[in-house]
Amino acid sequence: MQRYEDILAQLYEAIRPFARDGLELEEPTDLVNDLDLDSMKVMNLLRAVEDSFDISIPLNILPDVRTVKDFALQLQKLTKEGP
Amino acid sequence: MKSIFDKFRKIAETRQALEDSGVDCFDIVMEKVISATEAIVNGRRTILAGTNNYLGLTFDSECVDAACKAVYEQGTGTTGSRMANGTFTGHLLLEQELADFFGTRSAIVFSTGYVAILGMLSTLAGPGDVILLDADCHASIYDGCRMSGADIIRFGHNEVKELEKRLRRLGERAINALIVVEGIYSMLGDRAQLADIAALKREYSAYLLVDEAHSLGVLGEHGRGLAEEAGVEDSTDFIVGTFSKSLGAIGGFCVSKHPELDLIRYTSRLYIFTASSSPSTIASTRTALEILRTRPELRSRLWDNAYQLYERLRDMDFLLGPEPSPIVSVRLASKEQTLAFWKGLLDRGVYVNLVLPPATPDGGSLLRCSISAAHTPEQLEHICEAFASLRGVTQAAKAI
């Protein structure tokens, strides 16, 4: 199981291309509001994170993901359990 | 003070803005339906080019006669579900005829196409299972997946390599995964890459469900849909379809080679607790299915019409879906432009579907035409002329 800190660092890397210049990514960063993502961008971001971690992210978890921290915690679970 | 209706405020504002703009696009009333391809709308004779009436059978005299006869002989409705009120002979016969048509072991008839896909997905898959679905799948498929409780994994539209990646990542779980795609995608009219997808299904021993809602009666030598056209019916575990498009009625079905399909009757709440199709619906659907089987010239005429519209609009430099099909979607630059264009078409006696985000696949705005075998050359010409006369709307927007 990956350490949370390592997952967070990898997640920042995957998200950075989707963040506007100058936006500091932090655990409380709101993925939709702070990153100003529409549904297409959300899909592309998900795909980038999936490829970075080589996992698939079920859509079912999305209602529980609002911030970068929420996302990292979910990824920690997924990298432990699959799919 | 908070109200239960607060959540509707945003949609109320959007609707008001549309009304204020003079484009009342969601309240279209067919004041009088004249034929499969014409109605009176806003007091004007209007060509219907957005009704999914692919074979034009809604006014076919044999279908109408069969429906009338059924009403006189069996009444106007079944007044309940098959579980509670019993099955009418027509339900059974239609199921046998569907199974015979598709060459499958059995079939189940549902009351609508929406209920068919919802009922199948929510019952077939459950917690612990995985559904892999194409991102452009219809809302009913997403809803069914959600109801199932299975893990829902989406892959990019028709991106077969993305699907393979996701199957590989599943490891042993791929054996219970259900891949869900559509024969023809309803918004842009393109086909699933079904031969490649079926090959992956076989390689990973997964299951494959194809929604042939828009491809039944449209694709395949015998009109069975994309699975037939792509030569992968043997690899397709479940085919779901609707009676409300090529068959000109209302209802839905699933056919399968798996004997377990019959158990869906005892487990799907969408089958158990819904009133069954009325006798007239079943009768006209059975007749329409027979026509679909015996009059392939309808399919040829449909495709001739579809190619004609697609090519004419393409030659006018409209941005269209990726391939010719009975669904011809025109992509415009903005929501405002699309609304103006749609209203312009209606003012010229042409009705098409207005599709705005978030209902569109990539957030764009579409004018979605669906072509019928029943469209005459004169009607097609009128549709093309209406589009041509409105090209200024798009050019004005480009200039801005």
- The quaternary organization reads as heterodimer
Structural class of chain A: mainly alpha
**CATH fold annotation of the largest domain in chain B:** Aspartate Aminotransferase, domain 2
Q: Report the CATH C-level class of chain A.
A: Mainly Alpha
CATH fold-level label of chain A: Non-ribosomal Peptide Synthetase Peptidyl Carrier Protein, Chain A
Total count of domains of chain A: 1
Radius of gyration of chain B: 22 Å
Global outline of chain A: globular
Q: Would you identify the CATH architecture of the largest domain in chain B? A: 3-Layer(aba) Sandwich
* Global morphology of chain B: globular
Range of helix content of chain B: 40-55%
For the sheet with most strands of chain A, the description reads: none
What is the overall pLDDT average of chain B?
95
Which chain pair has the greatest contact? Answer: A-B, 14 and 18 residues
Kindly report how far apart the N and C termini of chain A lie.
14 Å
Average residue-wise pLDDT of chain A: 88
The count of β-strands of chain A is 0
What Rg of chain A, in angstroms, do the CA atoms define? Answer: 12 Å
In short:
The complex is a heterodimer of chains A (83) and B (400). By secondary structure, chain A is mostly helical. Chain A is 49% helix and 0% strand.
Describe the protein's architecture and organization.
The complex is a heterodimer of chains A (83) and B (400). Chain A has 83 residues and is mainly α. Chain A has a single domain, classed as ACP-like (Non-ribosomal Peptide Synthetase Peptidyl Carrier Protein, Chain A, Orthogonal Bundle), CATH 1.10.1200.10. In chain A, 49% of the residues lie in helices and 0% in strands. Chain A has helices at residues 4-15, 39-53, 68-81. The longest helix of chain A is centred in the middle third of the chain and has 15 residues, at 39-53. Chain A starts with a helix and ends with a helix. Chain B has 400 residues and is α/β, with parallel strands linked by helices. Chain B folds into two domains: 7-54 and 296-399, Aspartate Aminotransferase, domain 1; 59-294, Aspartate Aminotransferase, domain 2 (3-Layer(aba) Sandwich). Chain B has 16 helices and 15 strands. In chain B, the strands form three sheets. Chain B has a seven-stranded mixed beta sheet with strand order 4-10-9-8-7-5-6, sandwiched between helices. A four-stranded mixed beta sheet of chain B has the order 1-2-3-13. In chain B, strands 11-12-15-14 form a four-stranded antiparallel beta sheet. In chain B, a hairpin with a 2-residue loop joins β1 and β2. In chain B, α7 (160-170) packs parallel to α8 (194-204). Chain B is globular. Chain B starts with 8 loop residues before the first helix and ends with a helix. The mean pLDDT of chain B is 95. The A-B interface holds A 38-40, 43, 47, 54-60, 82-83 and B 130, 135, 145, 151-154, 156, 162, 165-166, 169-171, 173, 358, 362-363.
